[in-house]
Amino acid sequence: MKKTTMLATSLALMLGVIFLLSLWKDLFPPSPTEPARQPVVTPTAPPADKTPAIIHPVPELPARKESSTPPLPTLDESDSAMAAEIRGLSPESNPENLFILDHFIRRLVLLVDTLPKAQLAANRLPVRPVGGSFQVTEGAEQTIISPDNYQRYAPFVRFVEGLNSEKAVDLYVRFYPLFQQAYRDMGYPDGTFNDRLIEVIDHLVKAPTVAEPIRVTRHVVRYRYTDPDLEALSAGRKILLRIGPQNALKIKSKLSEIRGHLVSLPRT
Q1: Do residues 186 and 44 touch, judged by C-beta distance below 8 A?
Q2: DSSP state of 87
Q3: Nearest to 257 by CA among 166, 167, 182, 193
């Protein structure tokens, strides 16, 4: 398989959900500043003895697109190339304002892998925190998420809405060897990142829609969902609740669109 055929699948999802990570500023206290150029690698449990079957083979770029693609940089030297590519994906994409570009691919891979889990790696997020403080409306008997809070995430939602899904998938396919390398470095030597990516897309798209208002309870320095069923949801699904129903609908729609582009490309 040519290296230029593997990139598009992982990046598409990650760019589609990358803005979600910024919301964890509301859920976790600030983390110390990370030293420059620290490798972003999180140890994981050893892989299963049996090599898992590949559910979603990596797609190929059409030959007309492969012919003009430059050679890939190494994973540790890919930040500048990724920043240049991201600028052309959305009218709202100013990567320096939205993203942390240091070890960008490793951060994205870690984000995707942890969205269906209970917690994210709060000090390894690939996006910058949203501005302002988490907004609530306090009443005599309950505290709810304020509708004003949803406006804080507008720049990220605009980025996702403006994302050119076809270009994002092409970019993902071209850079896929680097995403796969980062995924294996995390402790998945036999897994495929493309399978994990589509699994996570499906997990987010199927997140429940909850009628407002959504009650929250202050816990030390952050808020938790009052409903234990909501608090037990995965990190990614809780974020979709926190950004508001209209924003969540826009994100789910874009993720479904991206998934359609991923599975429609020819397979290796």
Answers
A1: yes
A2: T
A3: 166
